[in-house]
Structure formats: structure tokens, C-alpha cells
Amino acid sequence: MKALVAAYGTLLSRESLALTLSHESTREKRFVPVWIAGFQRVFNVRPPYYRGARASHEESALNLERLADARCNAAVFLASLDELARLDARERGYERVVVPLLSFETLQPFGQAFAYVAPTSSPWIERDPRALAPLPRDLEWARAGARELGPDFAREFERTTFLADGRTPLG
User: Fold this and answer.
1) How far, in Å, CA of 75 to CA of 96, rounded?
2) Is the pLDDT of residue 71 over 70?
3) Helices assigned H by DSSP within 19-135
């Protein structure tokens, strides 16, 4: 049995994904561009395991937050149940939730997939972009994965990604 997973951040990068799944499995995965409907992508999670030896404001990970009229691009791939369990372990502190998908090209309904979302009550969420900025490694992995999916996908990734307050564009 397999599950459909929506990658919207570091999981877009095959290099990053291979840290959790095997390189062989990651190479063989087909990434299909989609939109996640009703959510926005925000750099607003500071996991305790992201904290370095010296305090830094550049420690945020990506998150999805519900927002009725929003959408952000992602790529879906199939994961075995064993791979899903490894992804669950990697994404500790996030909940695996079902998100609605739209076709990247046509905006027609595309079904549903699992995505990792921080609970709204998470103590890891920060709303001030002056206090929390993207972890450079995570930002580069997400951007690299977006570029691999083409210039339109990369442009939409930049347009639909926000800093901690959910209003300030990434750019």
C-alpha cells in the first residue's frame, strides 16, 4: 500500500528527502506539481532541534496554515507505509493531515494528500518576522527543489511563501 504525500518545503529537494528515505528510492520518485488549496506556506516554526550553539533568528522551518482563499504550490509523490513512518519521524512536532489538491496547470480538483502541518497550538510557532527568519539550509533546499520542477513552479514558490507573520513575502 502507498500514500500520497504533498511536499511543500524541504521535501521538495531530493537531496533533503534522501536524508530520510534511501537515495535509490528518492531518485525513483515521480514528483507531480500541484496546488494545496486553503493553506498558505509560512516560515513560522522554530523547532527546538533547529537551535544552534549560538542564538540566531535564522532558525525557522516551513509550515502550512489554513487560510480559506489561499493556495501554495507543492509536489506530490507516492510513499510506502515504511517511508511514511520515516517521514513521520522526521517531521516530529508536525501533524500529518489530509490537504485538498488542485492541478498545477488547470486548477481542477486533483484529490487529496498527506502534508505535515504544525498544530495551531504549537509552542514552536512564532509570528514576528523580525524575531524569526528562514533557516538558510531549509530555504536553499526548498528553492532548489522548486527550481527542479521548472521556472513557473519556482516563481510560484517565491510568490506563495511568506515570513512568520503570514503577510510579508519571502522575496
Assistant:
1) 16
2) yes
3) 23-28, 81-90
For the chain, the structural domain boundaries read 2-39+63-119+137-162
* Distance separating alpha carbons of residues 65 and 160, to the nearest angstrom: 12
The β-bridge relationship of strands 95-103 and 109-117 is antiparallel
- Residue of 85, 100, 130 lying closest to 6 (CA atoms): 100
The CB density around residue 166, as the number of other CB atoms within 10 Å, is 17
What's the pTM value of the predicted model, to 2 decimals?
A: 0.95
CATH number of 2-39+63-119+137-162: 3.10.490.10
pLDDT in tens, 25-47: 999 999 999 999 999 999 999 99
- Return the closest-CA partner of residue 29 out of 46, 12, 53, 54: 12
